[in-house]
Amino acid sequence: MTLPTTYLIIGAGPNGLVAARAFKRYGIDFDLIERNSRAGGIWDIDNPGSPMYESCSMITSRIAGGFVGYPMPSDLAMYPKWHQLRDYIQGFAHEFHLDDHCEFGVAVESAEQVETEEGSSWRVRLSNGETRDYRGIYSAIGTQWLPQIPEIEGLDTFTGRAIHAREYRSPSEFDGKRVLVVGAGNSGVDIVSDAAFRADAAFLSTRRPYYVFPKQIFGNALPDFLDGRGRVESRPWMEGLEPNDFVDVILSTVGDLEVYGLPKPEGPIGETHPIVSNTLLHVLSHGLLKRHPDVTRVEGSTVHFADGSSEQIDVIVFATGYRVRYDFLPDGVVEYQAGGHPKLHLETFFPGVPGLYSGGTMHAAVGTNWTMYDYFANFAAADAHATLTGENAENMRRFREEYDPDMTGGFPFVDTPRNENQCDPQMVLVEIPRAAREEFGIPLPAGFDDAEFYASLPRRSREAAAA
Fold first, then answer.
1. Residue 102 pLDDT greater than 60, yes or no
2. pTM beyond cutoff 0.85
3. Residue 465 clears pLDDT 90, i.e. is over it
4. What angle in degrees, to the nearest 10, is found between the helix axes of 14-25 and 369-389?
5. Helix (H, G, I), strand (E, B) or coil at 195
6. How are beta strands 108-116 and 119-126 bridged, if at all?
7. Long-range Cβ contacts of 103-108 (<8 Å, 24+ apart)
8. Quick check: 418 pLDDT over 80?
């Protein structure tokens, strides 16, 4: 049996597209399979199961976000809306001729590894009835498709409407309702702000404290200012200060969070994800929203909280995150952590499973994720190239099997399910790429060579924690 030389990339969202560009750069033949009718992933609200909602904007700025070598158009908003991101992603696919490789409206139903004397390959069954053989698979299935809802006593007795954030679409759904949002991630804060402006009453339930940052500072998007890309009209008191020195200034402008009815965080900045929002403090300070601690039980329309308080609720929205599942793979191929995050090596490799790659499941600082996905996709493409040609094969084996840096960079992230996939941006954008180039001979494409810029990313919270 002659082994196939074509690879399969699953998913034409941002991660699948950067993977396609990486494989194309190495001259590797690939098929790009997308179950929906066009590229865009979660950013296309018309894709079934997309978690997009009408008011959603990118948490990353126009300048800090985007693909390597393909900046967002300068006429977009500081924080682009979901439909602008959808169009931008589709423009990226067209610019690099990635959509030429894409088969839309086809899903991967199963994939099974086939072992022969020549080596291993993958037999893939598609939803159109076809069976194909591939040398390897890159999974870009995304992380926001399988909702995670906490187990709450009495939730099955709730007489109102209980949904996950993925099901939310429009603020009009809250008209005339008493709404509770559980969870304070990016979507949770957006959705509860919508409820605060439209509902009869709005409530936010959070288990733990979070730092709160504004989305703009000195006329710049927050990530642009913190990474040094922002433009600021200098004032005498600013002389000698670096962007990181302003973190305390920014937090001082927010002030004591207890004034707003929020608990005060005590740990280092970054131990849990911060809230980056202009609207949250607005609705709290104007009496449009009330915060409660964790939900303990539900009785009919009554929701009880950990502090003994309760509220009459019509709608509960669980902004409680997602699990990642590779449902197309046989049981036992992927090992999962307690919170639902897969155990991957360098975010790219499945330990002990050659030819199987993944990407897009880790989370770092705002503004770095798509660049980070690009690095990991290039690691997978480099390994596939070594498999097909034998070039740099031993270095790739060592990189894949022996190189084991601490992805957290030693930062004390709180032990929560969300933080299972949290990593240190300095590690994934500087240290690991440096090792890839210098120790393992993995060439990275033009546009990734600005190590000085990535080395300047904020590290204050990690250093403060160490101190």
1. yes
2. yes
3. no
4. 40
5. helix
6. antiparallel
7. 103/31, 103/32, 103/33, 103/34, 104/12, 104/34, 104/36, 104/37, 104/38, 105/34, 105/35, 105/36, 105/37, 106/33, 106/34, 106/35, 107/33, 107/35, 108/8, 108/10, 108/33, 108/35, 108/328
8. no
